[in-house]
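User: Earlier you gave me the apo prediction for this protein. Now I'd like the version with flavin-adenine dinucleotide bound, so I can compare the two side by side. Same sequence as before, with the ligand SMILES added.
Assistant: Got it. Here's the input I'm using:
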Amino acid sequence: MTNSIKNELKDIPSFHPVVIIGGGIVGSGIFRELSLHQVGCLLIDKFDFSSQTSQSSSKMLHGGIRYLENMDFSLVWEALKEKNRWLEIAPHLCYPKHFSMPVYKESSRPLWMIHAGVFLYDILSGFKNMPHKRTNKEQTLEEHPYLRDQGLKGAGVYSDAIVDDAKMTLECIYDGLKERDSYACNYTSLVKAERKKDSNNKELYFLTMKDEITGQTREMVCEHLVFATGPFTDRLLKDLNLFSWTPKLILSKGSHLWFSKEDFPLENPVVLTPDDGRVIFVIPQGNKVLVGTTEKAATSEFNQEASQEEIEYLLNNLREYFPKAQLAQEHIMASFAGLRPLVREDEGSDLGKVARHHKIYQPQDHAYVILGGKYTTFRVMASDLVKILFSQMKKTYHPELSLTPFRQKSTYLPWKPIDLDRQKLKTILDRECPKTFEDLILRRMGVWNLEEAPHIREFLKENESLWLPKLRVPEDWAQIIKDN
Ligand SMILES: Cc1cc2nc3c(=O)[nH]c(=O)nc-3n(C[C@H](O)[C@H](O)[C@H](O)COP(=O)(O)OP(=O)(O)OC[C@H]3O[C@@H](n4cnc5c(N)ncnc54)[C@H](O)[C@@H]3O)c2cc1C
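And here is the structure of the complex with flavin-adenine dinucleotide:
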């Protein structure tokens, strides 16, 4: 049933029962569900798949231990269930880890409360989590020798999972593309939408899509239209003016920093809980350490760079909790930021406490808008939307389908590097839909700095004839390859 991958707007049919706008984790999850139910569907994204919020997360599949404080047990229970499911379904993309939450004399939450919290977390997982631990000062320092010892009382240790967020989204798409009549086009944006009658007097959506690389536009028609556009939703729906829409999002910006393990030798994740009530995750991954995140109200969905203020906030906390590491601005290898698409509850909501529940709206016949949620619960979000869609289409929903493993795995996984050869590169180019050089190295290979991966740089240089004619290569990337 595998169709050869057609992901150019000009090559695909013009009618689709369902069109999904947005190829982040939410849109890709819906695409996969529909494909598993053999419903023809087109997924489009304005940029590369998984290049926006869904590659800028803290890269955890987690229940959200901090939501225990809000007594949001149903959210934590659901997210823990999903986390543990993905550990079984896709062990090549995620793995469990223990996270230590140290408690100091001045901490706002006492040690007994943290110990009770990690126990409750395991109960809510149905004891499927790796078991929690309660460590005293000595045990905590043995595990994390770089932590400040002054005032340390001990730690609560719970387990969550680390995920390759960009790859998980991409594999949902590869899986969806296994079915006939499923199409996915990156660098394709929705620029105009209208609901009107066709020649048979049937009400349909007439969509104008733009190929962002060639600039060409094309008309597409569909019966059902799904918006899975995350933080971009309010702006897009205002611009399209397809139906009446009151803005529903509060955008919360979260910034992260990457350090090299040489500068920050940390082996296991630590969760910092500074006095201001925020939570900072410090997560070693391979030979790097990820530190984040901030929670800052954002005014524009396009400003996705960490500000100097946010960088300093994270650095100050690192210096406070890991004084022996002596981290400074020059140790930061890279930084990135993303916007949480949180659904507005009331005006005064504290960003850290706004619930991560998702919401589905039907602002017009056969139009669906899905908002909120979190990466970990994307399968539940997709399944809820598809159930509503199927009730309109008079189709039966089969919940067990999305619990099956992905049918096409990524050729190259940065966590388990393999020797690349020409055939593997051809497979990536033909079946994994990269359209620019950045798509190839950043999201298909997981390399964000070619200087850090000399073997890949060499390989790409030797095999330039394979990828150069197929990909759009910005001058600075071409220069990097030439210079080395
Ligand atoms: C800093 C941060 C840390 C986080 N950490 C975690 C975590 O550790 N674990 C967790 O579970 N969750 C986490 N989250 C939440 C999670 O990342 C998001 O909930 C999730 O990625 C949102 O996915 P999405 O598909 O809704 O949005 P996106 O990934 O942003 O996808 C929306 C897509 O719509 C596309 N689009 C927009 N306009 C158009 C158009 N006109 N035409 C076509 N396409 C369009 C965009 O290009 C984009 O790719 C975090 C979020 C942030 C910001």
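For your comparison, keep in mind: The longest strand covers residues 152-163.
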